[in-house]
Specification:
7-stranded mixed sheet, Rossmann fold
Length: 376
């Protein structure tokens, strides 16, 4: 496939069902650079694994460009998985990749791993550990990112798991780190981190990619101060659950409530399940991997707890929060309540009124606001 054909393939890719906007693309220069660099490492019988593909550019680009017949893929986000599926269907490449969680099935026998570098060092460490642990002894990891989002800390993490790490020259503001000679890793994997939180009296479990790790976020702490004022729900939802702190604390507080924790991130889902189990709440908290509760029935919850995200990938974008308000409005039963905590400068209250219904400020500290919105 020529460079022109690759651009034509990229041009057909869609971000859906993720938020679409003029400044947001389904591919970037890192995808292009990773695919070009991969050509130098491919063997006729190469087993290729793609990790962190955003919307399918890397997976479909590999299948279209390189003569590789099949690719194993790991993506954290529900939306990324759905977008890859849609884009693969549209390109007639369905069935030529298999999705896997991060682990042995994904990596066993692999000799070339293409990675879109994640945001956090913890997520990179979990990936690097898995590659060193499960991939072939001669595996090469090509880890690419936008230069502005890369740090020397990333090299240090890779050097812990590979004895040769070589940064390549940057091109079009992207750079590849080539990691070779995986070190032998033994003992327990470093993730999930399991930590007792004495302030909350619970144990938190965190995979590398999860928001705030095993620490309590200060916005979440503020929202938890309002547990006593929240209604006793039959069906409560922790929307964007991360490690499942809100679900766990609410379930402990309201012994009669059924609680669903849901997040778009597979790492969050695995973390929340582990947190619920670690606190003896595995039976009462169910955890669902989903985008903005798309699989939930309308009117099925009477309480939703939300500490919304304000990032979409690397860009700050209010759309991520607004999408969850809209989803909450759909899933709440009439009279149901959405409790939200947010940085006060975001001034979400008019949007909450518009999407959900009458919204009152329950509290405000120097940084955060907590609101209660009632579904009309
Ligand atoms: C600010 S964090 C809060 C995490 C956790 N509730 C806490 O308080 O520690 C926001 C969470 O929302 C999740 N999220 C963002 N967009 C989402 C979407 N469309 N559907 C489901 N979860 C989403 C993120 O993955 C992240 O875990």
């Amino acid at each position: 496939m020529t460079a022109w054909e690759l651009e034509a393939l990229f041009g057909t890719l869609s971000r859906l069902p993720d938020v679409e906007a003029d400044n947001l693309r389904a591919y970037d220069a890192t995808d292009r650079l990773l695919l070009e660099t991969a050509e130098g490492y491919l063997r006729p019988d190469s087993q290729v694994v793609v990790i962190g593909d955003r919307y399918g550019a890397l997976t479909l680009g590999t299948l279209a460009c390189t003569g590789v017949g099949h690719v194993r893929v790991n993506q954290d986000l529900f939306t990324g998985r759905a977008a890859l599926q849609r884009n693969a269907d549209a390109a007639g490449m369905d069935g030529r990749y298999t999705p896997h969680e991060l682990g042995r099935e994904l990596l066993q026998g692999a000799d070339l791993i293409l990675l879109q570098l994640p945001k956090s060092l913890a997520e990179l460490e979990e990936i690097a550990d898995a590659v060193a642990r499960f991939a072939g002894p001669d595996a090469v990891l090509l880890a690419g990112g936008r230069v502005k989002h890369m740090s020397v800390g990333m090299n240090a993490v890779l050097e812990k798991y590979f004895s040769a790490v070589q940064p390549q020259l940057a091109r079009q503001k992207s750079r590849i780190l080539v990691a070779k000679n995986p070190r032998t890793v033994s003992g327990e994997p470093p993730f999930p981190v399991v930590e007792a939180n004495p302030e909350l009296g619970i144990t938190l479990c965190a995979h590398g990619a999860v928001f705030s790790g095993a620490r309590l976020d200060i916005g979440t702490r503020y929202l938890l101060g309002f547990l006593d004022r929240m209604p006793a729900a039959r069906q409560a939802v922790d929307l964007g659950c991360g490690t499942g702190i809100l679900a766990t604390m609410y379930a402990r507080h309201q012994a009669g409530a059924r609680v669903i924790a849901t997040d778009q991130s597979a790492a969050a889902v695995a973390s929340a399940m582990a947190t619920a189990a670690a606190n003896g709440l595995g039976e009462r908290i169910s955890v669902i991997h989903d985008d903005a509760m798309s699989s939930f029935e309308a009117g099925s919850a009477d309480l939703i707890l939300l500490n919304p995200p304000f990032h979409l990938g690397a860009s700050v974008h209010a759309g991520a929060g607004l999408k969850l308000f809209e989803a909450a409005a759909r899933v709440l039963a009439p009279g149901g309540e959405l409790w939200t905590v947010y940085n006060s400068h975001l001034q979400y209250r008019p949007a909450l009124e518009r999407y959900v219904g009458p919204t009152v400020e329950e509290g405000r500290n120097p940084k955060f606001t907590v609101t209660r919105s009632r579904k009309a």
